[in-house]
Amino acid sequence: MVIESESSRASGAQADELLAHTGRLRADADLMDGYARRLRTIAATLGTCSTAPGWSRPVLERQAAACASAATRLRAAAEALLAHARADRPTRGAMSVS
């Protein structure tokens, strides 16, 4: 007979919620990487345009670097949250009564 306590069910639900949040963080990181790529493409295009203001390319490159940095930090946060969720998740069937 397996007894699952109320607190282990709640803890399992919290772990599931953390796992879902991990997925959202990874998706946001992917978005930020996409923004960085677009900004770099625009900066490169403006670099070949004689009428583009001189400040535009460096500004876009800095923004792209910030987006890439944010993506890295979001992925690191997702990994830390995943480790926390796995450590917090109760082992199913761990409390058996004979």
Can you walk me through this structure?
The chain is mainly α and 98 residues long. Helices cover 77% and strands 0% of the residues. It contains 2 helices and no strands. Helix 1 runs antiparallel to helix 2.
Using brief descriptors, characterize the structure shown.
disordered C terminus, rod-shaped, 98 residues
Q: What is the total tally of β strands?
A: 0
**Main beta-sheet strand count, sense and barrel state:** none
* 3D shape: rod-shaped
List the uncertain runs: 1-7, 93-98
Share of helical residues: over 70%
Question: Mind telling me the C-alpha Rg?
Answer: 22 Å
Give the CA-CA distance, first to last residue: 6 Å
Summarize the structure.
This protein has 98 residues and is mainly α. It has helices at 6-47, 56-88.
Q: How are the SSEs placed, and which strands pair?
A:
Layout (H helix, E strand, L loop, with lengths): L5 H42 L8 H33 L10
